[in-house]
Amino acid sequence: MEFIDTLDTLERERFLKALRLRERGVEPYPPRVTRTHTIAETREQFEQGKDLGAVTLVGRMTANRWTGKITFADIRDGTGRIQLFLRQDNLGAETYKDFLKDFDLGDFVQASGTLFKTKTGEITVQVAEIIMLAKAVAPMPEKFHGLTDKETRYRQRYLDLMVNEEVREVFRARQRILTAMRAYLDRSGFIEVETPALQPLYGGALAKPFTTYHNELKRDLYLRIADELYLKRLLVGMFERVYEISKDFRNEGVDATHLPEFTMMECYQAFGDLSDMMKVVEDIFVECALAAQGALQITYGEHQVDLTPPFARVAMRDAILEKTEIDIYVDDTFDALNARIEEKHLRVEPQLSWGKLVEKLFGAYVEPTLIAPTFVIDFPTDISPFAKKKPDDPRVTERFEIYVAGAEYGNAFTELNDPADQWERFMEQQGNRARGDAEAQQMDDDYVQALKHGLPPTGGLGMGVDRLAMLLTNQHSIRDVVLYPQLRN
Fold it and tell me: What is the largest CA-CA distance in the chain?
């Protein structure tokens, strides 16, 4: 079987045009191009009154309108769109005929000519030469301005990007967010580092891992669920400020805000604490919002959100008490809290510990109501195995999460640096694992050994990059800010 036998009718017609070009001595996929300007540069300089003379532009042909001996066509490159004016008198009868016969929407072309404005004010290239750069065998989606099927958009992202300018802008904005985040951290004295993606023990979060097997080492390894424990080891080794922007992996459910593969930023600051991390969060939100939107006042769905610091602060206890009339400090055991939840007929799925009940109660009745940027503080100790206990109340820790528009965007601690306390927390996690908590931490003896050498007082932060991109581009599914999201078969 030959390649042409794999094509449908329309693809076959287009492929035959590529063969026809070759028969005329024209290569439909030449190895090099000539380009004098991007389309954006061309438009900007022409509007400024500069005499550009002859220009040579490249791009994908996305529209055409022709009558007899005149054709108007649009081409787009990565910077914008411009109109081409092709006339038989300029190109010659044979060349113009070949253009009409062999050039299609979707083809990449190289067009040379001079610029002028039409009567309607449209900047246009009067084409003296047009060359095929890449013949598109498959046609573009039928409606150039409307590829809307979600499955197609995610599974064939190249089509989505090809025809939806607003989607391309979302991913440009995502990159501006990452650039701004890195610039802020670099400017603040943090060093960007790399830690293992394949780990002999997973840790740093309460989550299920992906497991693989290394044939040469003859051992199981895990895709990291977080970077935390490796990054904090570096502070033991005398780095003072470190960060990593990396892919993490969690073998869990998929929904509008969760994917099995996602991007996290984690940073750690020696001689810092929870309040220092709050300042880092506020600064990052400001820097990234300005980079993505040019303003701190943003729209997310039906909400208008002002990201101007300082952000509000509320204790988890107070927030739950306000929404449910349950005081978790009074009902501070699993049985007591579970009884109160049942008494009030609140919908909270069964959990294995007091802290998990508190977390689920908060998620169901408080989290959706936090629209303005809010730091929620004082998380239960049994769901915060790497955070310092509050000196005046060991039931809770020096931990916060940042919430905006009803969703969580970051998690931070005053880091636990007492090796004995950390060992005990690991042991408690082993008990949770024995009771069926698949997300409980593994015992990490080497991390405890590192703490024995001394971890300075430290503030640490993890932020979800994908979720931040969702917020700052007004997207409501994580798949819309990840170029190639994992999908079901």
Answer: 89
Per DSSP, the three-state class of 16 is: helix
Those residues with Cβ within 8 angstroms of residue 190's Cβ, 6 or more apart along the chain or in another chain: 241, 242, 243, 267, 269
- The backbone torsions φ and ψ at residue 379, rounded to the nearest 5 degrees and listed phi first, read -85, 150
Using alpha carbons, list the distances in angstroms from residue 245 to 43, 181, 186, 467.
36, 9, 12, 14
Whole-angstrom CA distances from 111 to 37, 43, 66, 81, 364 are 11, 15, 17, 13, 58
**DSSP symbol at 126:** E
* Alpha-carbon span 365 to 346, nearest angstrom: 9
Separation of CA 407 from chain center: 15
- Name the H helices within 332-387: 334-343, 354-365
Please enumerate in sequence order all residues whose Cβ is within 8 A of that of 370, keeping only pairs 6 or more positions apart, or say none. Answer: 319, 376, 403, 404, 406
Domains and CATH numbers, the chain: 3-140 (2.40.50.140), 163-311+372-480 (3.30.930.10)
pLDDT for res 427: 92
For residue 463 the two structure tokens come to 């932020």
- For residues 361 and 326, the answer to whether their CB atoms sit within 8 Å is yes
Rg for the chain, CA atoms, rounded: 29
What integer pLDDT is reported at residue 144 of this predicted model? 46
Q: Residue 442 pLDDT > 90, yes or no?
A: no
Judged by phi (left if over 0) then psi (alpha if -120 to 50, else beta), residue 284 lies in alpha
The helix (run of H) or strand (run of E) holding residue 463 is strand 458-464
Q: In angstroms, how far is CA 154 from the centroid of its own chain? A: 14
Cis peptide before 310 (omega within 30 of 0): yes
Contacts of 216 (CB under 8 A, 6+ apart): none
**pTM for the full model?**
0.92
Rounded to the nearest 10 degrees, what angle do helices 316-324 and 354-365 cross at?
A: 60
User: Per residue in 250-280, pLDDT tens?
Assistant: 998 889 999 999 999 999 999 999 999 999 9
